[in-house]
């Protein structure tokens, strides 16, 4: 069936046996297949002019077409097709010069038409690849089978029953606002040769794909809102001692884990299914080809119990829509709009910004590349932009479970904060206080610093007096500096800072001490 | 001439959510076979060199701009629903218990 939301899950209490990761990897070789659905960010649905806003009142974004009312006819959204072609090109696919829509027939009330308009044997894009990098810098190529256009389904709410879940529900309530929103389904080829890195590659692939789709501007790619969803197919086959013989071993039976909707879960779900398969196979059992449901809270999958003979979609070409036949010129025009691929872009930016591998990894993990780029463009030093976004602001965003972009501070404001530090007006701890003020809505960094009276004292008169006092009180330290132990100056600086309640410009204090000590 | 089996009819009935008794299955097997045989006559048409088609008109790329058009209000949308609750279509429970 189609893309059921997590509230459709059947709950199956039992916990199944798993092998340890090391046992799994020693005996078996994984084969992966990843299906990603991305909701396009078009203003309207794929086949009608209904709006696509997230979180609208139930059944307020519907019309006769997406409700499947008799006599209504679909018309394809031009931007949906363009987005599909751009995605295909960005994934290094061939764009079909001629492709059709097809009806995928099934009985389930999430599509009022009793079919989903999709593509079957004539997808718009096929045979591509996406290069991904793991955290340690090792690179893998993920081969893409196809990317095709389809439409999203409605959302079902199951009412009654003991668990409130699908089994035992008394009735279901359906909201069709989501039905008909353009979806692109991106399917990999069977992915082999990843071995023990398979779970990490799966995660890196979805992360890279997310970044690419975001860079393309075709979707908001929010996994938590379901605009990017991943289904993970996993199978195992016996591991051969000689790696060159591995390709000769036929694939094992696969399971498909549905709705794995966070990056971390992609890795965990693949890892879990591998260890579960391994336990079944090692015990002499066989894997049942089935749908599995992922449980984020417990980190396990359970059987979807779907009957295999129900999966007969009787596809046929959609008679209400004419074929899509992009000209070579129109494809090239769209190719010219493609952004730089994420992996290359990261390498270029890392070079430009002078970040170490470790620093760059922190930036990537904080999802801060775009925002740092904007901050540097607004005049910040790359080091300053990194320090704020992947440090203090990321820490607070994490704490609140918010995105960096939702923190109430703009790249321009961070650039201003950085300028205040670079210009010697604020030290680190003052800058943090200014950040507090900005996040609390007190205004721009300059205004917050003024209002809170935060500024380093670099005026030689005030500093000089404090320095003289400290020097007079510490003849032993002064002697040490004079005898060449310059690091002893640190203790003097510390005392001056203390005397000035932390508001002194430490660099200037050092200069004044050195002048006076005369070394 | 038809190769339709009784199992095929049972499978189709299941897909279409139509419950058939054994007697009805037998009757449908006969009737559907007659229809299939009749339609099979089409296969005698000379189709060499003829491209398969899904649409009678030689049109491609019929699209509309990505602009919102007025649709239905939720009250209008739900006005034809046999049952509605919480501004949603109410439908019989979706899957039977295993």
TrEMBL record, chain A:
SUPFAM superfamilies: GatB/YqeY motif (SSF89095), Glutamine synthetase/guanido kinase (SSF55931). It is an enzyme of class 6 (ligase). Keywords: ATP-binding, Ligase, Nucleotide-binding, Protein biosynthesis. One of its GO terms (biological process) is glutaminyl-tRNAGln biosynthesis via transamidation. Residues 370-517 form the Asn/Gln amidotransferase domain. Its EC number is 6.3.5.-. Pfam families: GatB_N, GatB_Yqey. InterPro entries: Asn/Gln-tRNA_amidoTrfase_suB/E, Asn/Gln-tRNA_Trfase_suB/E_cat, Asn/Gln_amidotransferase, Asn/Gln_tRNA_amidoTrase-B-like, GatB, GatB_Yqey_C_2, Gln-tRNA_amidoTrfase_suB_CS, Gln_synth/guanido_kin_cat_dom. GO terms for molecular function: ATP binding; glutaminyl-tRNA synthase (glutamine-hydrolyzing) activity. It catalyses: L-glutamyl-tRNA(Gln) + L-glutamine + ATP + H2O = L-glutaminyl-tRNA(Gln) + L-glutamate + ADP + phosphate + H(+); L-aspartyl-tRNA(Asn) + L-glutamine + ATP + H2O = L-asparaginyl-tRNA(Asn) + L-glutamate + ADP + phosphate + 2 H(+). PANTHER family: GLUTAMYL-TRNA GLN AMIDOTRANSFERASE SUBUNIT B MITOCHONDRIAL AND PROKARYOTIC PET112-RELATED, GLUTAMYL-TRNA(GLN) AMIDOTRANSFERASE SUBUNIT B, MITOCHONDRIAL. Heterotrimer of A, B and C subunits. Allows the formation of correctly charged Asn-tRNA(Asn) or Gln-tRNA(Gln) through the transamidation of misacylated Asp-tRNA(Asn) or Glu-tRNA(Gln) in organisms which lack either or both of asparaginyl-tRNA or glutaminyl-tRNA synthetases. The reaction takes place in the presence of glutamine and ATP through an activated phospho-Asp-tRNA(Asn) or phospho-Glu-tRNA(Gln). Belongs to the GatB/GatE family. GatB subfamily. This is Aspartyl/glutamyl-tRNA(Asn/Gln) amidotransferase subunit B. It comes from Candidatus Phosphoribacter hodrii.
UniProtKB/TrEMBL annotation, chain B:
GO terms for molecular function: ATP binding; glutaminyl-tRNA synthase (glutamine-hydrolyzing) activity. The keyword Cell wall biogenesis/degradation does not apply. Allows the formation of correctly charged Asn-tRNA(Asn) or Gln-tRNA(Gln) through the transamidation of misacylated Asp-tRNA(Asn) or Glu-tRNA(Gln) in organisms which lack either or both of asparaginyl-tRNA or glutaminyl-tRNA synthetases. The reaction takes place in the presence of glutamine and ATP through an activated phospho-Asp-tRNA(Asn) or phospho-Glu-tRNA(Gln). The keyword Disulfide bond does not apply. Coiled coil: none annotated. GO terms for biological process: glutaminyl-tRNAGln biosynthesis via transamidation; regulation of translational fidelity; translation. It comes from Candidatus Phosphoribacter hodrii. It catalyses: L-glutamyl-tRNA(Gln) + L-glutamine + ATP + H2O = L-glutaminyl-tRNA(Gln) + L-glutamate + ADP + phosphate + H(+); L-aspartyl-tRNA(Asn) + L-glutamine + ATP + H2O = L-asparaginyl-tRNA(Asn) + L-glutamate + ADP + phosphate + 2 H(+). Gene3D superfamilies: Glu-tRNAGln amidotransferase C subunit, N-terminal domain (1.10.20.60). Heterotrimer of A, B and C subunits. Residues 74-98 are annotated as: Disordered. This is Aspartyl/glutamyl-tRNA(Asn/Gln) amidotransferase subunit C. It is an enzyme of class 6 (ligase). InterPro entries: Asp/Glu-ADT_sf_sub_c, GatC.
């Amino acid at each position: 069936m189609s893309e059921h939301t997590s509230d459709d899950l059947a709950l199956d209490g039992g916990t199944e046996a798993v092998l340890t990761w090391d046992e799994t990897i020693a005996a078996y070789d994984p084969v992966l297949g990843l299906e990603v659905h991305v909701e396009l960010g078009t203003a309207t649905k794929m086949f009608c002019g209904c709006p696509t806003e997230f979180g609208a009142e139930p059944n307020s974004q519907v019309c006769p077409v997406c409700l499947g009312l008799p006599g209504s006819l679909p018309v394809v959204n031009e931007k949906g097709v363009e987005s599909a072609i751009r995605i295909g090109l960005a994934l290094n696919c061939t764009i079909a010069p001629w492709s059709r829509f097809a009806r995928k027939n099934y009985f389930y009330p999430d599509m009022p038409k009793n079919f989903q308009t999709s593509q079957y044997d004539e997808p718009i894009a096929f045979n591509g690849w996406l290069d991904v990098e793991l955290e340690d810098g090792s690179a893998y190529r993920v081969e893409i089978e196809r990317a095709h256009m389809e439409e999203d389904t409605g959302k079902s709410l199951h009412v009654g029953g003991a668990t409130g879940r699908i089994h035992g529900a008394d009735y279901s309530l359906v909201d069709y606002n989501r039905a008909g929103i353009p979806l692109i389904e991106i399917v990999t080829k069977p992915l082999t040769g990843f071995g023990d890195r398979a779970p990490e590659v799966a995660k890196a692939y979805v992360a890279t794909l997310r970044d690419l789709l975001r860079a393309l501007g075709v979707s908001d790619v929010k996994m938590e809102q379901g605009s990017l969803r991943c289904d993970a197919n996993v199978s195992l086959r016996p591991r051969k001692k000689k790696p060159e013989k591995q390709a000769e071993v036929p694939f094992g039976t696969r399971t498909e884990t549905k709705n794995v909707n966070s990056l971390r879960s992609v890795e965990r779900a693949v890892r879990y299914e591998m260890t579960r398969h391994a336990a079944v196979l090692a015990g002499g059992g066989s894997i049942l080809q089935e749908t599995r449901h992922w449980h984020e809270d417990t980190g396990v999958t359970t059987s979807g119990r779907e009957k295999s003979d129900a999966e007969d979609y009787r596809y046929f070409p959609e008679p209400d829509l004419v074929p899509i036949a992009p000209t070579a010129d129109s494809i090239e025009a769209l190719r010219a709009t493609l952004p730089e691929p994420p992996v290359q872009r990261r390498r270029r930016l890392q070079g430009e910004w002078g970040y170490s591998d470790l620093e760059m990894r922190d930036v990537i993990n904080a999802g801060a590349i775009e925002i740092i780029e904007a901050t540097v463009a607004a005049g910040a030093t790359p080091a300053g932009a990194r320090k704020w976004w992947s440090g203090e602001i990321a820490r607070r965003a994490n704490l609140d479970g918010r995105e960096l972009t939702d923190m109430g501070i703009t790249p321009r404001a961070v650039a201003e904060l950085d300028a205040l530090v670079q210009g010697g007006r604020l030290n680190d701890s003052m800058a943090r206080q200014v950040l507090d003020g900005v996040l609390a809505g007190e205004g721009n960094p300059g205004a917050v610093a003024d209002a809170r009276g935060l500024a380093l004292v670099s005026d030689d008169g005030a500093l000089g007096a404090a320095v003289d006092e400290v020097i007079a009180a510490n003849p032993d330290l002064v002697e040490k500096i004079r005898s060449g132990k310059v690091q002893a100056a640190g203790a003097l600086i510390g005392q001056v800072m203390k005397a000035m309640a932390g508001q002194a410009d430490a660099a200037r204090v050092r200069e004044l001490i050195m002048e006076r000590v005369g070394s | 001439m038809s190769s339709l089996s009784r199992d095929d009819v049972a499978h189709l009935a299941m897909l279409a959510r139509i419950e058939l008794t054994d007697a009805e299955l037998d009757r449908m097997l006969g009737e559907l076979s007659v229809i299939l045989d009749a339609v099979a006559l089409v296969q005698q048409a000379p189709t060499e060199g003829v491209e398969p088609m899904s649409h009678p008109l030689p049109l491609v790329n019929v699209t509309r701009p990505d602009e919102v058009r007025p649709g239905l209000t939720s009250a209008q949308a739900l006005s034809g629903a046999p049952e509605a609750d919480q501004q949603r279509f109410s439908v019989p429970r979706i899957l039977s218990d295993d």
